[in-house]
Amino acid sequence: MMDRYKIPRTKELEFGGPLGAMILLFLMPTTVFYLLLTCRTEQASVLNFPPPLPPLSTLWSPHTFLLLLAWVGLQAALYMLPMGKVTEGIVLRDKSRLQYRINAFHAMGVTALVVGAGLAAGLRLSYIYDHFLQLAFSALLLAFGLSFLLYFKSLFAPETTLAPGGNSGNPIYDFFMGHELNPRIGSFDLKYFCELRPGLLGWALVNMAMLMKETELRGSPSLAMLLVNAFQLLYVVDALWNEEAILTTMDIVHDGFGFMLAFGDLAWVPFTYSLQAYFLVNHPQKLSLPMAVGILLLNGLGYCIFRSANSQKNTFRRNPNDPRVTGLKTIPTATGRRLLVSGWWGFVRHPNYLGDLIMALAWSLPCGLTHVLPYFYVFYFTVLLIHREARDEHQCLRKYGLAWQEYCRRVPYRIFPYLY
Q: Where are the membrane-spanning stretches (predicted)?
């Protein structure tokens, strides 16, 4: 009976298959350290070779590794507390539905209290800046260690629980993509926990540490640093407030939990998304008030598009008869579901990505226009979202068939209106 629920072998491999996965296993950590090392130089130029990587004996610090484990342990403890509601995920291939506790916003509040108490007791948050490379190296080790444990665990998992995109039979590819879809230890969902908790909150904490370091060096934080912190904190708070929405994302529904997501959650997000704040510590920028207001308005535009589009989609998914979406035009599909074809989703096919990219630009503009490095996030995120959009399009065409083709005909632009 259970044979029909088995996950078939992955035939359509991404990232160039096993060879591409092997290259990315090396390239992703290398990129993190290239960016951080370059950011510490006086020129901060991507055209120059970065200084050599410090000896491993200086990168490895038991103290920073224990601090990182303590941070992850704190978030894990908060995740397990009986705060917030419990909701169900989507129906899985074997017709079951997993339960998830929605309490990330509560965890953020408790974390803020803990950090605030530490600062009142004399905690030097700028320690994060002073030991940034060691912390990044510790996060790399943690991500690799977790990935090996996840892959080993997946070898003993029932075939019905494997990931559709990480069941190729090639160990390197499946290690990278994630072999098991929703690895759990009891009720503790490892992927769901890592998706929002240690890395995303860690990103906000790193930004605050950079602000504190700049204050130590110059007496007060710059307007540019305040804008970067405020913009990115808003993004983190929004993600945690709307935690339930990630249950329908491709990361949760389709992708297994392997090195790609583990490294992304634990190392890539906190150590590359904070690059603008890290840059500003060593390369201060003066912003005029009109420029700051313009950047503020640009971020506001991006956030409004991002939040409005996502809210419209999530409301329609939960209840198509909700008064807020009943007037929107739709296309029926063979699955019984309907596709939105008006509102934001009639403007472009991925309006949330458009808002995301506008915000990405606003986060980098406080760093000035003389360096390319702080704009890495804009370039990287553009590539990421175009790749993700292509994956979405492929999945939707497979799922909705002719209805999706009709939707594409009626909404021809994917992300950028009149451009792409």
A: 21-39, 59-81, 102-125, 131-152, 217-237, 257-275, 287-309, 357-386
Alpha helices by DSSP H, listed for 81-197, are 104-120, 127-130, 132-154, 171-177, 190-196
pLDDT of residue 1: 43
Determine the pLDDT at residue 284. 92
Q: What is the mean pLDDT of residues 220-234?
A: 96
d(CA 55, CA 61): 12
- The one-letter amino acid code at 43 reads Q
pLDDT score, position 191: 94
Q: At residue 271, what are phi and psi to the nearest 5 degrees?
A: -105, -10
pLDDT reported for residue 115: 94
**CA-CA distance, 268 to 30, in Å (whole number)?**
11
**Residue 289, φ and ψ in degrees, nearest 5:** -60, -45
Query: Which of 66-80, 116-130, 156-170, 318-332 comes out lowest in average pLDDT?
Result: 318-332
Give the list of residues 6+ apart from residue 185 with CB closer than 8 angstroms, or none: none
If you count DSSP H runs as helices and E runs as strands, how many of each does the chain have, helices first?
18, 6
